[in-house]
Specification:
Blueprint (H helix, E strand, L loop, with lengths): L1 E2 L17 H11 L1 H14 L1 H6 L5 E16 L4 E20 L1 H69 L4 H36 L15 E2 L7 H11 L1 H21 L5 E13 L8 E13 L7 H68 L4 H35 L5 H8 L5
Helix pairs in contact: 1-4, 2-4, 4-5, 4-7, 4-9, 6-7, 6-8, 7-8, 8-9
Amino acid sequence: MIRLTFVLLSSFFGSAHAVDLLDIYRDAVSQDAQYAAAKAQYLSVQESLPQAQSSRLPKINLEAGYDYNSVDADSTFSSGHRDFGSYEYGVTATQSLYKKQNDVAVDLAQLGIIKANTELELANQNLMLRTLWLYSNVLRAKTNLGTVRAQKIAISEQLELAKRNFSVGTATITDQREAQARLDLVLAEELAAQNDLRVSKEALQELVGGPVSANLAQLKMPLELELPMPNDIDLWVQRATEKSLEMILAQHEVGIAQTRVEFNRLGASPTVDLVGSIVDSYAGNSTFGSGSDTTAGVVGVRLRVPIFEGGKVKSETREAISQYDKSFQELEYVKRKVAQEARVAFLDVTTGIARIDAFGQALSSTKLQLESTKLGLEVGVRTAVDVLDAETLLAEARRDMFGAIYDTILAKFRLQAVTGRLVESDLVAINDLFVE
């Protein structure tokens, strides 16, 4: 466990009623366009099941028609010209008794819904990762700006001191010019840091679809970060290849592709339908010289055995087999990908904690160096330039330490994401690292 005992400049911290990471995430859930699109896709896939189940249910149609007839007859029974109308109407029904493809279609729909659930989980997980990344980018930009401004204050003080010392003859013009040059450089850096902060805020506002409070909750200090448990990279890689949402999604794709092969093969299988109809027919006349009004009811069974479909079924089956091969290769790619992501995230966490510790030591050392350099300036063994260098080192050490903290927090969250399912309670645990 690494314990940090350093605190940022007071200008880095927000005051009461700060907007925290969890607030931003909850706004993003309702406002982010990517996540909204994922939810819409999820809802649309749910309709595939009732559509597939409908193939098992009866099909009932009301049919009606009217015809105008003009007949010229010349036969033993009737002759002459007749104009008359005829119509018919009735109800027809069909009930599938046997069609194996219908059962596989339901299986496909159910597999598609399971896949859609995983896709929605993955979209939510990615939303959490994006939220943390964009949130930490704003804090990082604020830290960098605070660092530059701290440098500007220190350099401005040294410039004023150099001017006073030069005016009384205890320093050369070189000290004054050195301080002025450094001040000009840090003013340019301040403009760049202000722009970075503005850009990072814009990205966060895009996520939530509106303005974000400038007062974001900052890191709690001192901060405790722990190494991954178990501290074994191979176990984390194994967990990623078994539990990663990307792996689970790729496995669903393989299952769907395999079922689709079976569905297409069954396109040439026999079907049996129960059919029935009640039809009333009326004709005002006929070629025999008399009209008719009949009602007929029919119930029967129809067997259909496809003999030749123009090669369509075989072609669709070959296409489905190729798609299955594609999904299987993509599964292998995802397996390698998540394994590599787990390795990188694990190493980023372990290295990041070591970097935090190193930067913490560097911060302590640069503080002592600055104090010694200022004392040396007072007794005449150090110059103002030496003090400026020490001030710069201190500011850079502080900036680098907080940068390492943000990187490590992100790496820990990525490691959780690639090795399982992120839920809101995981984000709550990260949010606890920030001042509320």
